[in-house]
UniProtKB/TrEMBL annotation:
Region Disordered: start-end pairs: 160-222
Alphabetically ordered keywords of this record: Calcium, Glycoprotein, Metal-binding
Compositionally biased residues, Basic residues: 196-213
Cross-referenced Gene3D superfamilies: 3.30.1120.10, Alkaline Phosphatase, subunit A
GO molecular function: metal ion binding; sulfuric ester hydrolase activity
Keyword Coiled coil: no
Record organism: Micrurus lemniscatus lemniscatus
Origin superkingdom: Eukaryota
Coiled coil: none
Annotated SUPFAM superfamilies: Alkaline phosphatase-like
Record protein name field: Sulfatase N-terminal domain-containing protein
Length: 222
């Protein structure tokens, strides 16, 4: 059964007999019955990653993603027993657990599929194929499209990536030779930020990702 870290908050609140404001629109689910009684989890999908900066898949394109998703972007999502990867998936090797043997250093082991050159979309049945060795993307294009659509839905509510350039002021040579807090905010900006934090944000209602995910229930019957 699928359980995500976002499910712990609503689950613990329920155990504490607390109440959650429905306006918050949490993405997490109360999974206590799944844990304690072995019932089906209300969660059917998990977004593993969307990295819009990591676009090293040279052959990735919107066309490869059926006009739904740019497959140059590294991403991964699981829905029911399906897992979809796009972009450059990275290394497919694994390092065995540390042992006390004196035979020699551990070797790298190729334990996953060999990625086809130019390919930027993979689909796996994670239940039947936990090692992700058999790519089913060409066999089930309709499933690929549905998972790409789900990726697109998640991405619409994603916080924009903020990856600022290196600041030379962080160099330990300029801070007593130690790594530590180095940014000093001037008084004007400090007061401005304090005033902004003091204002109450306006409430806006919108569909959460968990509400949008109900349309994927059809995948459970695949």
């Amino acid at each position: 059964e699928l359980i995500h870290i976002t499910d712990w908050f609503p689950t613990l609140i329920t155990l504490a007999e607390g109440q959650i404001d429905e306006d918050i629109q949490l993405d997490g689910y109360d999974v206590w019955e799944t844990i304690s009684e072995g019932r089906r989890s209300p969660r059917i999908d998990i977004l593993h990653n969307i990295d819009p900066i990591y676009t090293k898949a040279r052959n990735g394109s919107w066309a490869a993603g059926f006009g739904i998703w740019n497959t140059a972007i590294q991403s991964a999502i699981r829905v029911s027993h399906w897992k979809l990867l796009t972009g450059n998936p990275g290394y497919g090797d694994w390092v065995p657990p540390q042992s006390f043997s004196n035979v020699g250093p551990n070797r790298w082991h190729n334990e996953r599929v060999s990625w086809t050159a130019g390919k930027t979309v993979w689909l796996f049945n994670i239940t039947a194929d936990p090692y992700e060795r058999e790519d089913l993307s060409s066999k089930y294009p309709s499933i690929v499209k549905q998972l790409l659509q789900r990726l697109s839905q998640f991405n619409k509510t994603a916080v924009p990536v903020r990856y600022p350039p290196k600041d030379p002021r962080s160099n330990p040579n300029f801070n007593g030779g130690v790594w530590g807090p180095w940014f000093k905010e001037n008084k004007n900006n400090k007061m401005l930020n304090k005033n902004k934090l003091g204002k109450k944000p306006k409430k806006t209602k919108k569909k959460s990702n968990r509400q949008k995910g109900h349309s994927l229930n059809c995948l459970l019957n695949q």
